[in-house]
Amino acid sequence: MALDLSEKKINQTKMEYNFREIEKKWQQKWVENKTYRVVEDESRKKFYVLNMFPYPSGAGLHVGHPLGYIASDIFARFKRLQSLNVLNPMGYDAYGLPAEQYAIQTGQHPEKTTTENINRYREQLDKIGFSFDWDREVRTCDPAYYKWTQWAFRKMFGSYYSNDTKQARPIEELISHFEQQGSKGLNAAQSEELDFTADKWKAMSEKEQQQTLMNYRIAYMGETMVNWCPGLGTVLANDEVVDGVSERGGYPVVQKKMRQWCLRVSAYAQRLLDGLDTVDWTDSIKETQRNWIGRSEGTEMQFKVANQDFDFTIFTTRADTIFGVTFMVLAPESELVERLTTESQKKEVEEYLAYVKKRTELDRMSDRKVTGVFSGSYAVNPFTGDKIPVWISEYVLAGYGTGAIMAVPAHDSRDYAFAKHFGLPIVPLIEGADVSEESFDAKEGIVTNSPADGKTALDGFSLNGMTVKEAIEATKTFVTGHGLGRVKVNYRLRDAIFSRQRYWGEPFPVYYKDEMPYMIPEDKLPLELPEIDEYKPTETGEPPLGRAKKWAWDTVKNEVTDKSRIDNHTVFPLELFTMPGFAGSSAYYLRYMDPKNGKALVSKKADEYWQNVDLYVGGTEHATGHLIYSRFWNKFLHDLGVSCKEEPFQKLVNQGMIQGRSNFVYRVNSDDHDKAPVFVSLGRKDQYDVTPIHVDVNIVDNDILDIEAFKAWRPEYANAEFIFEDGSDSQNASHTSDSTGRIYKCGWAVEKMSKSMFNVVNPDMIVEKYGADTLRLYEMFLGPVEQSKPWDTNGIDGCHRFLKKFWNLFYDNRTGESLITLDAPTADQLKSLHKLIKKVTQDIENFSYNTAISAFMICVNELGQSKCHSREVLRELIILLAPFAPHIAEELWEALGNEGSVCDAQWPAWEERYLVESEMQLTVSFNGKARYQKTFPMDAQNADIEKAVLEDERSGKYLEGLQMLKVIIVPKKIVNVVLKK
Ligand code: ANZ
User: Which residues cross the membrane (predicted)?
Assistant: First the structure.
């Protein structure tokens, strides 16, 4: 029965799938109707989807960028269709080095380029049809936003970390502890162990008190070794340095000791570790974080210095090896070096220290070169009384443990290499342990040589006969029981260096009085970034903010004032450092919950409604930087009662990279620079001496070069000659390629998608040619979201054709007439539909979008073949497609006569009863040889099957003249007729 068109609003004829018109129309409607605006709604369950927000670079988006955004948008739309209240915001990580480098080169204010880049990003994003609630947009460089970054920093400055309550506490509590009992009984995270009485505290000057507090503050000013990048004029975080050069710009990085702001991230090490057990992240990211945090449980032990009245402490994870210690090693930076270096060794030690100064921490850890020097002093083994030499070597790091170790060359590879190199004794302790260059790691086995033969140990202590595990425990107990040391947990995680000597970042809300930092009052935030004349350091080497004229703090009027008024009495200089890139990205997810709030980072109400991010999508490159800092930041805010959840990101999905497919032309090498350049086609290049040159992929089609376009692209090759694939050349024929072999074939390789490799594909171009819905489908169809894969446009037509086929279920592609009927669907059509509902629902939940799309293609083919135009079926199909291809879905949803947006429809549920198979197909064999297929009702009895097979005319020739012995039926699979030969 044809649908009564006069009643329904579906009587327009539509000739073809006009994606340009449709996408424009719906993008406008979404804006007009505020389709993606979301408000807190207590009556509905929330779902928070978040993308790692982009840094708006000058190059704009390429097809790799939207991959994660599309994946999360599909999920957001899916959850909304399942009736959840979905928050899906977007914003910009707007501070950063590239804009500032550009500013230095061109004199343009980085704010200007940043805004231009943001506008370009927005334009590109809008074309792809995301369901972002743009009313919630944040930009980290906006004062209304960074007010809360400064606010959090101020709170960190005003807090210390209590190891007793395992949380951040107000610094006032610490002050009152000091007033009452000095440092006694304090169990707090600290830079170094301090020991003072209440009287001593009270007798300190203000400056001394401030210096003391700095030892405990969560945001503190510390003297640390930093990665200094002279080329950029700033320090960099470890994750901003790759292979000794800056990640951005590739400038060399050196080690330098400097005063810097630091965040006491290390205080949260255990909580950062524990939290990993509560989140749904991949094992590999969790493992990366665990390694970064690097928890190590061991023992600190005291060793006396021979003939001197003092001892020092070492950290070991293998206390059980105490009887194999044959020397001690100090880090070159250790304060002990000076005390333990004897007169006769002084010169040698000084030379060695000068050498080490030039080496970075990375060199020292990765380099296997053995270097070191004897201090001249000896230590005493507390268990045996043996005198052992104390050495100094760069393989012991100052910042880890105590910066001093007991060396056990029989069971530690670095100690072994050292002992071999300097001819020190090696004493094996564990039975069967193979003491050789390769194998030391004797963490299992029976201890046999502890104490070594003929030696006596303190109180007759012996480890012989124990397993390593037992021996470690026994030693720990002995050490603590005899006052020789204590059990200690160490973490590799370091405090984060939090200042940069740059312009384009958040200013610190800090002024300096008597060299000590003080915070400007909370109600005076934000402290806005001042204008400066140039964006580089001053002549005297101060950071760029040193150029600002109005950059002092008036403590009477509580306002920024002119630097000329500084009297260090009521007017003080402001901080010249700015905050690093990760400052603004550490709590942005909280701000999206309540982006316009002028009174708080986020209101209690909004925070309690949205809680935390349910699904976070972003790249693995943030595994140790952003994902550690933001977890730390959130835990701190949690301690303050601002964020109700301990962990910010419940589920994390890492999208893979879309790589570029680069193309090359091959230039024949020649010394004759007057001759026209010659390029040889791929298949002939091995006959020449050539240099491959990247060529813009946009002038190559199916690896065939558009020669005219190439000449236009690179004017220096305007007179170039070409040797074609068939060996002919351009000199003695026309310049146009043809398919008969007179073509120039390019080579190709899969590389990172990047402007410098000319392999960037712009999503705008794809949208222009095929539409956003095709782009969305195609990016997901390329393969599993988490996998990296090359961009390859070959399959894009298939996705586009699929959408056309989908359209043709609704409209006749010749007449444009509506085909929709009120006919009841057939059982087969219902089966196709419900199979699809089940598959798509489950696949979306598992982020297996590519398989969901394949299922869609199969289903649309089935429905097309069975000429299904049933409104009942098509309605559900539209809803299923809506997360993937929202524009076409809206258009067809409207065509079916629905009011409003398909976004507010209800996700269909599949019914198992439609999925039940009603028929089965059996393979019929004779003496084990498969001959043909036959279909039976699902409930057919064996006797009926046998009868039908024997009567089937196709069986005749196999049965002829032979005696039938029996018929074997394997349910739902095979019928085998056994004949006597
Ligand atoms: C004796 C020993 C014997 C060790 C043995 C290991 C094996 P993790 O697990 O990483 O914490 N160590 C301690 N402080 C160090 C420093 N500042 N620089 C370099 N190495 C240091 O490693 C702890 C082990 O690394 C410690 O245990 C110590 O060597 C060394 F068969 O002590 B061990």
Answer: none
How far apart, in whole angstroms, are the C-alpha atoms of residue 445 and residue 460? 22
Q: Is the pLDDT of residue 11 over 50?
A: no
- Residue 9 in this model has a pLDDT that exceeds 80: no
The protein residue whose alpha carbon is closest to atom 7 in ligand 1 is: 412
**Cross-strand pairs, 516:** 513
Q: Is 834 in the pocket of ligand 1 (CB under 6 A)?
A: no
Nearest CA, atom 18, ligand 1: 396
| Distance in Å, CA 364 to ligand 1 centroid | 15
pLDDT digits (tens, 9 = 90+) for 558-577: 999 999 999 999 999 999 99
Say how many Å lie between the CA of residue 403 and the centre of ligand 1. 10
Mean pLDDT of 698-712: 92
- The dihedrals phi and psi of 721, each to the nearest 5 degrees, come to -110, 155
**Domain co-membership, 178 together with 236:** yes
Q: 696: Cβ–Cβ under 8 A, 6 or more apart, which residues?
A: 663, 713, 758
User: Does 819 fall in a domain?
Assistant: yes
Query: How many other CB atoms are there within 10 angstroms of residue 42's CB atom?
Result: 9
Q: Give the pLDDT mean for 121-132.
A: 97
Provide the domain count of the chain.
6
**Which range has the worst mean pLDDT, 206-215, 587-596, 728-737, 773-782?**
728-737
In a domain, 192, yes or no: yes
Q: Which of 606, 440, 578 is nearest to 504 (CA)?
A: 578
Element containing residue 713 per DSSP (H, E): helix 707-713
- Local structure of 491: helix, strand or coil: strand
pLDDT score recorded for residue 15: 67
Residue 666 pairs in a beta bridge with: 680, 692
Q: Are residues 318 and 203 in the same domain?
A: no
Task: State the pLDDT at residue 539.
Answer: 80
What is the CA(286)–ligand 1 centre distance, in A?
Answer: 24
- Do 195 and 76 lie in one domain? The reply is no
Collapsing DSSP to helix, strand or coil, 711 comes out as: helix
**Alpha-carbon dihedral angle through residues 908, 912, 913, 914, given to the nearest 10 degrees:** 60
266 in the same domain as 408: no
The response to whether 755 counts as a known ligand-binding position is: yes
Q: Which residues lie closer than 8 Å to 677 by C-beta, 6 or more apart? A: 667, 668, 670, 716, 717, 719, 720, 721
Distances (CA, A) of 966 to 123, 950, 976, 980: 73, 11, 8, 9
Query: DSSP string of 857-894?
Result: HHHHHHHHHTT--BHHHHHHHHHHHTTT-HHHHHHHHH
344 shares a domain with 278: no
Same domain, 635 and 687: no
15-30 residue pLDDT tens: 689 999 999 999 999 9
Q: What is the pLDDT of residue 14?
A: 66
Say if residues 131 and 80 touch (Cβ distance below 8 Å). yes
CA nearest neighbour of 497 among 300, 755, 240: 240
Residue 288 to residue 359: CA distance in whole angstroms = 26
Shared domain for 595 and 675, answered yes or no, is no
Separation of CA 315 and ligand 1 centre (Å) = 7
- Which residue range forms the structural domain that includes residue 433? 295-490
Over 60: is that where the pLDDT of 299 sits? yes
From start to end of 5-69, where are the E strands?
46-51
pLDDT in tens, 179-225: 999 999 999 999 998 999 999 999 999 999 999 999 999 999 998 87
